[in-house]
Amino acid sequence: MDMRIMNFDSPAFFQALHNLVDGGAGEKSSAPTQDYVRDAKAMASTPADVKEYPNSYVFIIDMPGLKSGDIKVEVMEDNVLIISGERKREEEEKDGGGAKYVRMERRVGKFMRKFALPENADTEAITAICQDGVLTVTVKKLPPPEPKKPKIIQVKIA
Predict the structure, then answer these.
(1) What is the mean pLDDT of residues 78-107?
(2) Could you tell me the pLDDT band of residue 22, with boundaries at 50, 70 and 90?
């Protein structure tokens, strides 16, 4: 069979074949990556309140039913506060009672929030307390820089 009849000798065919084999390595895809989609879902499902006080910033997030070991609070080098963790489904008892869920509305899975901290945030003075299902993360503010005093130069009389 002559390959030219099926149009296999055209440059467009070879370019398409090359892209299929390479996975489009030379072209940037506009589709979001799987990690981005997962992080976006985790962030959207974790609402937070942020308050600013004269000496601190306070982040308040509802965390019902979570233990402190299920919550992770960290600060990245570029002043990004990350609050993350995972809410797991309760293990069903194997008592032979045959209980099954009729409705499951409570959210389970990973959660995460990222907050860009301002320059005056003291990343060495951060506290996190989870009480009654509410996580409160407090970030102290750095003291404002002292204003520079002008240098006084004595004028000599010659």
Answers:
(1) 77
(2) low
| CB-based contact 137:121 (threshold 8 Å) | no
What is the model's pLDDT at position 30?
66
- What does the alpha-carbon distance between residue 9 and residue 139 come to, in Å, rounded to a whole number? 65
